[in-house]
Amino acid sequence: MTEPSILLKVNQLTVALPAGMDRENAIEDVDLEVRQGQIVCLVGESGSGKSVTAASVMGVLPRKLLTISRGSILLEGEEIAVASDRRLCELRGSRMAMVFQEPLTALNPVMTIGAQIAEVIKIHEPNSRKRAIDDRVLELLTDVHLPDPAGIRHSYPHQLSGGQRQRAVIAMALALEPALIIADEPTTALDVTTQAQILKLFRELLFKHKSALLLITHDFGVVAEVADEILVMRHGRVVERGGPRDVLDNPSHPYTQALVAAVPSFRFRRSVEGTTEPVLKADNLHLTYQSRSLSGRKRETRALNGVSFEIGRGETVGIVGESGSGKTTLAKCVMRFEVPDRGRISINGHNIELLSGAGLRNFRRRIQMIFQDPYKSLNPRRTVGQAITEGPIYYGTKYKEAVDQAGGLLELVGLRRHDLDRFPHEFSGGQRQRICIARALAMEPEIIVADEPVSALDVSVQAQVLDLFESLRKKLNFSMLFITHDLRVASNICDRVAVMSRGRIVEIGETETVFRNPQDDYTVSLLAAVPGGLELTVQAARTDNKFAAERR
Fold first, then answer.
1. Cα(324)–Cα(169) distance, rounded to whole angstroms?
2. Domains along the chain?
3. Measured between alpha carbons, how far is 494 from 506 in angstroms, rounded to an integer?
4. Which candidate among 5, 168, 382, 518 keeps its CA 20 to 30 Å from the CA of 34?
5. Where are the beta strands (DSSP E) in 405-476?
6. Residue range 257-307, pLDDT digits in tens
């Protein structure tokens, strides 16, 4: 058999950083090949150069900040490192496409999902008929397993959950069946079942259309699931490369060994004592969203349907479930960003819907939220220091004290004190999420609502942040509502876990009990879909009260 053709060849690629940065080059002497039908994974911590490598290939580097100083990039034999803007526009979408890490910034907020996917086809295939384009859009939305494709094609990005938006971006990238797909953390916002579907879809596409995938990820579970070759990057250099067995099972570089050791696994902690006093209680919450399209079609979405739970003082309760199950809507109700149609939410026995004026301001200080999308939740015109100190200063902390506290918090979440003077766009996605965590902790809240707070973080920083949450919880005795699609993360930090599906809590209890002995079929399906060769033998868990974890 002939060897598969090389679709992408990068040789000695070096991208220079502006003067005054922590190192001379963003990436240096990077070599890689991606062959037809192959999935090559770039892994490494935030700031290691993974996204810069991808942006270089796509020709989307910010030219005033980052420039290619040497090296070549061959796409199907064509040199594109010095290609004109016109030629790069012709290649983007048709021969190479990119799935970005943050879907909300990649989608146009004033265009429907269907119109944005159709736009890609119209630009590159202007003679296509409207009926054919409409059929292709529906086919793509169905392929990425979005619910109600006919309805979602008429929806706007803000009307979808984070995971649904990511699937829409993937559908857009697949529109013209490009030879090379570059995916920058494409499964970060996806629940485990959808993640498995998307990874399977990528693999099917490679063989069906003779394409290839350059996958950037910090999730070693995903890497173990799909990688044909792995490149480990650190400080802009490739420090190790090889197949999954070599890199994951027998890493040779100390940095790779540290990354593999930090991969989260199912680890159940002892429940905290003295959690009988509920600090937050939700009783029979109902919330239905109603919308109407431009054509007048009415649409109803039952986001919450009889949700009840409580959180004890010092306790961490996890909410897990697929995208669109109601997790984030529940968090918004707890924060009073949304008001439920029926039901009651109380903090220390006080109904939050009755709060106003000084009482509402005091409530805002006692409960803080860490949002799923860090880029959306940070003001691009304000420095990191201004973002973190704004809350404490508003509530009376002296400026100098607030700045000193902010610098200490940045160091706690793995950044540097002098990063206070930088702006959000100067950080990677994982670094921005750490800034959001520091901002929430600055208020020393009684309750933290964390919506996927570690989904954008690499495994080593993820482990540090989870440890940080735990140490601060013990020190400050705050309670936490922890929303995540990663069941392994939930097992590490949650005392109890609630499983949500279609707006309902289908199962709730101590984390170890729920995961070792799931009672609902939906919980079983979530556990069975955990990526990375960690197949949970649920039947064995039920009969023997043990988890069985196997490498595929």
1. 16
2. 1-95+180-263 (3.40.50.300), 104-177 (no CATH), 278-516 (3.40.50.300), 517-552 (no CATH)
3. 17
4. 168
5. 447-451
6. 988 888 877 888 766 654 567 899 999 999 998 876 555 667 778 899 999
